[in-house]
Amino acid sequence: MGFTFIDTLRIIGALGLFIYGIKIMSESIQKSFGPALKMLFNVMTKNRFSGIIAGFMITSLVFSSSSATVMAVSFVNTGLITLAESVSIMLGANVGATVISWLVSVFGFNADFSFIYLMIFAIGTPLIFSSKNKLKYIGEFIFGVALLFLGLSEIIATIPNLNDSNYLFSFYENTSSLNFFNNIFFVLVGVLLTIILQSSSASIVFTQVLCFNGIIPFEVAIPMVLGQNFGRTINTEIASITGNVFAKRSARIHSLVNIFGLVWMLIFLSVFPVLDGLDYIMIEVFRLDSVFQSNSAPIGIALFHSLYNIINVGIMIWFIPQLVSLATNTIKSKGDTDEEFRLEHISTGIMATPEMSIIEAQKEIAKFGKLINKMNELIKTLLTEQDAKKVDTIIHKIKKYENITDEIEQDVADYLTKISQGEMSENSSIQIRGMLSIIGDLERIGDIYYQISKVLERKFEEKIWFTPEQRKNILDMLVILDEALTIMQKNLTSNYADVTKKQAVDIEQALNLYRKKLRKEHYKNVEQGAYSFQNAAIYSDLFNSLEKVGDHVINVTEGVVGEI
Predict the structure, then answer these.
(1) How distant is the alpha carbon of residue 406 from its chain centre?
(2) Cβ-count burial of 266 within 10 angstroms (0-12 exposed, 13-18 middle, 19+ buried)?
(3) Is there a contact between 54 and 93 (Cβ–Cβ < 8 Å)?
(4) Residue-wise DSSP of 182-225
(5) I need a labelling partner for 139 at 20 to 30 A (CA). Which of 201, 315, 525, 543 fits?
């Protein structure tokens, strides 16, 4: 019986089950240990070695090197980690990528183990319907494991049917002595498989199955695995397309690391007896059959995949500064707005869980707060500037920043809305509502500052001059507002759960009292004719506007603590 369309559908469906199983396992782990993953990034990126461990552990936990790498790119994009720190995480993720191939090679090809996935389904199914999130996530993980092995068993069961149509694979025959160009061809085949499946893990497992069933020899499988390993860089490059300059540089470094590894290993495969070395380790160290025998080939593939990535990491760890420098020089910044004032959605725009996605939003909102502080400084400068060209430049910059605040509010709001559409804890839901409130207040502050700049522009053009006392009063109010904004920014960059609003309330009350004092004095001066009507109108507009800014600043802290 020949290879039929039904066989093709069975293989595609089985691969789909396998990939979906990995996806469910990954998401359930992230839902359960989202805060712990955050801590891993924060605590374990202090040096290059701890960063490698963090990358390995996260990849091992979530069963996806692409997810870990995309996380690293995303966190660089939002400023959670530095570009250099992301390199060590990605190096560790490369090693962690081998976990799935080991898991499958040890358990998946054992005929006595194939029936166990049904028992795993039986255990996981009732947990999925639990009302307790923790039990539900455990059930999802167990269900994912079952789907993974069900998919694998179906792949193994379907592949033998291909033996009846082995002419499809006749190109692979008599390839025991591959040269450099043959190896390049099979590397490209591996890259293509990864692009098609969008999963290097599934692609490598598929190669393990082909080798296990004798469809392709071990000599062909190794360069294919090398190409499949390299194919992961494409996901990272795609993830960085919408990112800022730091995200693009991080993705570029990931590509450089894997390009270097691909080149030196291709040379080694073509010049040195690498496969004989693997065979020696299998027989003499593991006490297993030769890697050239189909039953041991899957473990041989996992062994090669691990040793290759470990050696490559051992080399590249010493060149992190050079990698950062090369990526920085080849990907130029487009300016401050490219580096600071854009919300960049990595890959699909949303991390696997709301808890991880909220980190991105929080970091972007903190940058939003920095922009508001800059606008406040520009207003102080504008108040005392006498040069017409400089006044025009400052007003133009404030307008530019006001436009940016509008864009950031819209981008963050869209992002938070997408996050809220997924399943989340009550705490995450409160946090998102607070963030939506925060960005609205920050955008409104930007509008007020722009309105103040137009008032000061009119004052300058109409040559309306403040008295020394008026100028001092406004500057003193701006000093109080400076302190309020400093407290606001500290709260935005802190762990929201640790923030209290006492300091913010105190400084907001001080601002209100000062505005009340100025208003009382102002009415008295107007009655006495101390200054013109135009002067009085502009002066009153300024201190009232600054008081409104203070109201929005305290609202920001209330959003941080969840009082909305």
Answers:
(1) 23
(2) middle
(3) no
(4) HHHHHHHHHHHHHHHHT-HHHHHHHHHHHHHTTSS-HHHHHHHH
(5) 201
Q: Residues, the chain, total? A: 564
pTM, full prediction: 0.64
In this structure, how many other beta carbons lie within 10 angstroms of the beta carbon of residue 17? 20
CB atoms within 10 A of CB 387: 10
Cα separation, 101 vs 298, whole angstroms: 8
CA distances to 1, 89, 209, 247 from 4, in Å? 8, 44, 19, 44
What are the chain's domains? 5-336 (no CATH), 353-561 (1.20.58.220)
Q: What angle do CA 45, 49, 55 make, to 5 degrees?
A: 60
Residue type, 24: I
Residues in the chain where the model's pLDDT stays below 70 = 1-3, 30-31, 33-46, 64, 66-67, 69-71, 73-80, 110-115, 160-178, 235-236, 239-240, 242-244, 247, 333-356, 422-426, 564
Question: What are φ and ψ of residue 532, in 5° steps?
Answer: -70, 165
Cβ contact 51:89 at 8 Å = yes
Encoded tokens for 409: 């509010």
Separation between Cα atoms, residue 562 and residue 421, nearest integer Å = 19
Q: What are phi and psi of 280, to 5 degrees?
A: -60, -45
Q: Which tens digits make up the pLDDT trace of 35-56? A: 666 666 665 556 777 778 878 8
> Given 3-state DSSP classes, what are the helix, strand and coil percentages for the chain, each rounded to the nearest 5?
80, 0, 20
- In the numeric block, which tokens belong to residue 119? 């028992």
